[in-house]
Structures are given as structure tokens and as C-alpha cells.
């Protein structure tokens, strides 16, 4: 069975890691959001791609979920001492990734090639693909400050501004890469990982245009990133509430309603399963909270078992 997983950062990376522990490299491709990518200190930074790569490589910081384990921040502290910006936390090891990526991009390599080479160097055997090699920039429209580039909203302003909407700048000219198209063509199932629907998954879906890109549509299942009306981490629930939608697993099913074949919700939300719309979406209720490596593997196994039943 060939699986394509769509992932943002922390939540997506955990399930992608679980799937990678169960599936051989040729059976899993992870397509990652690049709408969060930005230029900072003269470097090109791809936060979600790096989070997924570091997680699968076993290099991620287990406390934060982003950045590298056993990290130091000497370079950033010295940048600050010189009056430079230090609001985006870049560790010394992590900086090496951005330095080398930026050098290669300037030399004409694509983000897809660079990610493949980095994965090889880090011992990641499953394929991790940026959603596109064309630039897409997620903009968050806020009540207080108007439109903010994603990292200004997310990191610098700590998700405090009230959200009105989102725009993916550059989306009209962004194309899925040949590698992404090929993975989608071969997929028996697409798994939408428990990532933020607004800012992690919607940019991927906007680039992929699954309905027109994939000739023989595979099963598409999503795992709810909202458990008991709350996010495990990050602003997804706050975003739903600010946009006038009650945050819940139902809101997630509604968000993806035209795509889904199956939907996985947490045991906490078992009572909502019967209300998942549209009615022909099959549901699976399971413990979807991934606190440990065992949890990642267990949820991934539940996902694979569920796919078999569709
Ligand atoms: P970000 O780019 O780092 O914010 O990461 P993502 O978009 O991939 O993930 C954020 C979403 O993942 C949030 O909505 C979280 O609620 C969700 N999430 C994180 N950990 C888990 C988990 O263990 N289980 C589930 N079901 N969702 C999770």
C-alpha cells in the first residue's frame, strides 16, 4: 500500500514519524507545507520541512517539537549583542541547516533536491517532499495589525492578534513538483495528518489541487488535530473561534468535507462521530494523542488499519 501523508510541523511530524516506523521507505511519501517558509538574517528557513526531517531523523528537540535536540544558541546570542533580531529562535546546529540550504538555493538547486540530500545525510530513508519549489507565503489577516506574514504572527506576536482570514501569496503560480505529482499518482491513500488546517494543510491542498492532479482518486483520510474542542499545541482552536466557528473535531471534518473518505477522531470526541458530515464519510474513534514514540506507532497503525476498511 502506497501512502502519501500531508503534514505541517509538530502534529504532522509525529504521525509521519509513526507511519515511517511501520512502512518501508518506498511505501511512504510525506508532502510538507512550505507556506511558513521565510527569509530571516539573510537565510531561507523552511520550518515545517525541517521539523519533519529532524523528527524522522531522530534529531528533533523532544520538548519543543521544533528545532534540534541538544541545541545551543551562541550564534543568536551574539547576533542579539550586535543589535540584530533574536525573536526567531535559531539554534547553532539548526543554523547550519539554513546556511547550507541558502547556499544551495543561491547555487540554483531546488528545495526538493536540497531536502533529498539533507535527508540522505541525516539517515532519513522515507521521502520528504516540499509541497512545491515555487514560493508560497502564508499571510494572516488580523484585526489589530492587518495582514501579517505568518512568522510575524506566529512567533514574533505569539499568535496573540485576532485572526480574520488567510491568504497564500504566490499560490496562483505555485505548482506541485514532478516528484509530488508522481507520489500522488501512485498513492492508494492520502493521510491528512493532525496539523493546523488553516495554515499547515490548506496551503498544501491549494497547491496540490487534488481533484485535477490525481487521475484515480485514492482514499483520503484526516486525523483531527482538535481533541475535546482544544488543540494539543498551537493556535488552530483559537483561529476557529476567532473566525466564528466552534472549534471541534466536527469543525475539522467540515473543513475537509469535500475531500474526505474517512475521518479519525479522538475517544474524547466519540460522541461526535455520528454527526460527522457529510454522512458518507466513515469514522474511526481512537486515542489520537501522541505523547510517546509508542503513541505515534499505535496511531499510525490505527490509520493503516482504518484505510484497509475503506
Ligand atoms: P506547527 O506548524 O508546528 O503548528 O504544527 P502542525 O500544524 O503540524 O500541528 C499543529 C496541530 O497539531 C495543532 O492543531 C495540534 O492540536 C495538533 N497536534 C499536535 N500534537 C497532536 C497529537 O498528539 N494528536 C493530535 N490529534 N493532534 C496533535
How would you summarize what this structure contains?
The protein is α/β, with parallel strands linked by helices and 310 residues long. α1 (10-22) links the parallel β1 and β2 (28-32).
- Strand coverage percent: 15-25%
Poorly predicted segments: none
Bound molecules: guanosine-5'-diphosphate
User: Quick check: average pLDDT?
Assistant: 96
Biggest beta sheet attributes: 7 strands, parallel
Task: Give the helix proportion (percent range).
Answer: 25-40%
Assembly type: single chain
Shape: globular
Characterize the structure shown.
By secondary structure, the chain is of the alpha/beta class. The chain has a domain at 3-36 and 50-58 and 110-135 and 172-309: Rossmann fold, CATH 3.40.50.10680. It is built from 12 helices and 14 strands. It has helices at residues 10-22, 47-57, 74-81, 92-106, 111-122, 150-156, 178-186, 197-208, 210-213, 236-242, 249-255, 293-309, and strands at 3-7, 28-32, 38-40, 43-45, 127-130, 137-142, 146-149, 163-169, 189-192, 219-223, 226-227, 230-231, 262-266, 282-286. The strands form 4 sheets. Strands 5-2-1-9-10-13-14 form a 7-stranded parallel β-sheet, with helices on both faces. The protein has a 3-stranded antiparallel β-sheet with strand order 7-6-8. α1 links the parallel β1 (3-7) and β2. α1 crosses α12 (293-309) and α4 (92-106) packs across α5 (111-122). The longest helix has 17 residues, at 293-309. It starts with a strand and ends with a helix. The mean pLDDT is 96. The structure holds guanosine-5'-diphosphate. Residues 8-12, 14, 48, 194-196, 200, 223-225, 227, 231-234, 236, 288-290 line the site of guanosine-5'-diphosphate (GDP).
Amino acid at each position: 500500500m502506497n501512502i502519501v501523508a500531508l503534514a505541517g510541523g509538530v502534529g504532522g511530524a509525529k504521525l509521519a514519524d509513526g507511519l515511517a516506523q511501520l512502512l518501508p521507505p518506498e511505501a511512504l511519501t510525506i508532502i510538507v507545507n512550505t507556506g511558513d517558509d521565510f527569509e530571516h538574517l539573510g537565510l531561507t528557513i523552511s520550518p515545517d520541512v525541517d521539523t519533519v526531517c529532524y523528527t524522522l531523523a531522530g534529531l528533533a528537540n523532544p520538548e519543543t517539537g521544533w528545532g534540534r535536540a541538544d541545541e545551543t544558541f551562541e550564534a543568536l546570542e551574539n547576533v542579539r549583542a550586535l543589535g540584530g533580531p533574536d525573536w526567531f529562535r535559531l539554534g547553532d546546529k539548526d543554523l547550519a541547516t539554513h546556511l547550507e540550504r541558502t547556499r544551495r538555493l543561491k547555487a540554483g538547486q531546488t528545495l526538493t533536491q536540497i531536502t533529498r540530500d539533507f535527508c540522505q545525510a541525516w539517515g532519513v530513508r522515507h521521502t520528504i517532499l516540499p509541497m512545491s519549489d515555487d514560493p508560497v507565503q502564508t499571510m494572516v489577516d488580523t484585526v489589530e495589525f492587518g495582514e501579517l506574514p505568518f512568522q510575524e504572527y506566529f512567533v514574533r506576536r505569539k499568535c496573540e492578534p485576532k485572526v480574520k482570514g488567510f491568504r497564500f501569496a504566490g499560490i496562483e503560480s505555485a505548482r506541485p513538483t514532478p516528484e509530488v505529482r508522481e507520489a500522488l499518482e501512485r498513492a492508494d491513500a492520502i493521510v491528512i495528518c493532525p496539523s493546523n488546517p488553516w495554515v499547515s494543510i490548506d496551503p498544501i491542498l491549494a497547491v496540490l489541487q487534488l481533484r485535477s492532479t490525481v487521475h484515480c482518486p485514492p482514499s483520503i483520510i484526516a486525523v483531527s488535530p482538535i481533541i475535546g474542542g482544544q488543540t494539543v499545541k498551537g493556535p488552530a482552536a483559537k483561529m476557529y473561534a476567532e473566525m466564528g466557528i466552534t472549534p471541534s473535531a466536527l469543525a475539522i471534518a467540515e473543513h475537509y468535507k469535500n475531500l474526505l473518505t474517512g475521518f479519525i477522531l479522538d475517544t474524547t470526541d466519540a460522541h461526535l462521530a455520528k454527526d460527522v458530515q457529510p454522512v458518507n464519510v466513515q469514522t474511526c474513534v481512537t486515542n489520537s494523542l501522541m505523547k510517546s514514540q509508542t503513541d505515534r506507532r499505535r496511531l499510525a497503525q490505527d490509520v493503516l488499519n482504518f484505510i484497509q476498511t475503506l
